[in-house]
Specification:
2 domains; 7 helices; alpha+beta; four-stranded antiparallel beta sheet; binds iron/sulfur cluster; single chain; 30% helix
């Protein structure tokens, strides 16, 4: 860790300087402006000092060494695929590139320095090196279900997550106090390769299944989740 402003202890990050938080009214204005950006359905603010490195992973501070708050937005996967094409990763990246730029224009207009990130790197366990899921949870945009997807309270698990780092401190929104996963076990029961069990997720089994089919497996783990009306 090269940052002068942050100390790391047991995988947690702590500020060693105080920053004036962004005014709450300005925060809500920013949120409303980002909600006007195409396909964005919800926005949250995550306190990055609470971020924990995943095994073999990295941190947002690799991109912005004095990052304080992440502005996190979500869109519905179907909307993104419809607009940006059927190949999941291409579609996601094109959506993130365009949307990060638009969010950055808004933040800079409010005098906030920022950097949108797209990180396709994976750990040996096939997790994102920088965990967007964890950052979305810190922003109060959902909780992690048994399927290991972030489940948004209104949109369910079928969401795409974007992250724009700022070096300002914006009062955080999350995490949510209530777990949204109802333990219905639909994802666990219906996964065709048994990738999900009560306390683990076998990413390799899931990936291999999707590779063999050459497309998605129909994602019953997402489609059948009852949260968000699925
Ligand atoms: S995407 Fe398909 S293979 Fe992967 S966990 Fe979900 S249901 Fe199982
Ligand atoms: S399908 Fe049921 S068990 Fe699986 S994540 Fe959704 S609510 Fe939780």
């Amino acid at each position: 860790m090269t940052c002068e402003n942050i100390t790391e202890s047991k995988g947690r990050f702590e500020w060693i300087e105080n920053r004036e938080p962004v005014d709450i009214k300005v925060k809500e204005t920013i949120r409303n402006e980002i909600l006007e950006v195409g396909l964005v359905r919800d926005v949250g603010f995550a306190d990055l000092s609470q971020y924990s490195k995943v095994p073999g992973g990295s941190t947002p501070f690799e991109y912005l060494n004095d990052a304080g708050t992440a502005v996190v937005y979500v869109a519905e996967t179907d909307d993104v695929i419809q607009k940006y094409g059927k190949w999941y990763v291409v579609s996601l990246n094109n959506f993130l590139k365009k949307t990060n730029d638009k969010v950055a224009v808004i933040l800079r207009r409010h005098g906030i320095y920022c950097l949108g990130i797209i990180d396709e790197r994976l750990t040996d366990d096939l997790m994102g090196k920088v965990s967007f899921r964890q950052i979305a949870v810190l922003a109060g945009l959902g909780t992690v279900g048994k399927s290991t997807c972030v489940i948004h309270p209104r949109l369910g698990p079928s969401i795409m997550i974007g992250v724009v780092l700022t070096n300002s401190y914006v009062p955080r929104d999350g995490p949510l106090e209530k777990e949204l996963c109802s333990d219905c076990d639909a994802c666990l029961r219906e996964c065709p390769v048994g990738a999900i069990d009560d306390d683990s997720f076998n990413r390799r089994k899931c990936k291999d299944r999707r590779k063999i089919l050459g497309k998605g497996c129909g994602t019953p783990c997402i489609v059948l989740c009852p949260v968000g009306g699925g």
